[in-house]
Structure formats: structure tokens, C-alpha cells
Amino acid sequence: MKKRTVKFTEDKGEIVGELRPVRKGELPSLDELVGKLRRQTKVTLALDNEALDFFKREARRRNTSYQRMIRNLVRSYARAHASAK
Prior knowledge:
The chain contains two helices and no strands. The protein is an all-alpha fold.
């Protein structure tokens, strides 16, 4: 299998477009974020400390990985917006 080359961009995480608050019902519950493992690709992602501390705390309470919870949240978001198009 050929190894893929990872390319980095100059994107500094600038926000494009308008932001709006996310309503509670729009997101999966924390228990739903525990989920199961799937095929994965490693990426580098910078999160603010407040968000990371939240996921670490909730993962400890649910005896799971905070990375898994974040992955499942991103997947849920992507699916919701892919089906909306």
C-alpha cells in the first residue's frame, strides 16, 4: 500500500461566513458520542483548552476516550449537514 503524503495548508482556522449558536437538540447527546470505533485517519487539530477540558472530563465520567467523543461529534455534524444539501 502506497503511503499518502500529508500536506499542510496556511489555514489558521479563520471563520468563513456567519456564526450562529447551536441549539441543544441539534447535537447528539454526550452518551451518543461514546460510539464504536471505525476506520480512521490521523489529523492534527488545535482545540481551545475549555473545549478540551470539557471532553476530557465527560470522557472520564463515561469511562471512554475523549478523542472518540470528539470524532463522533464531528461525524454527526458532517452527516447532518451532508444530508441537508
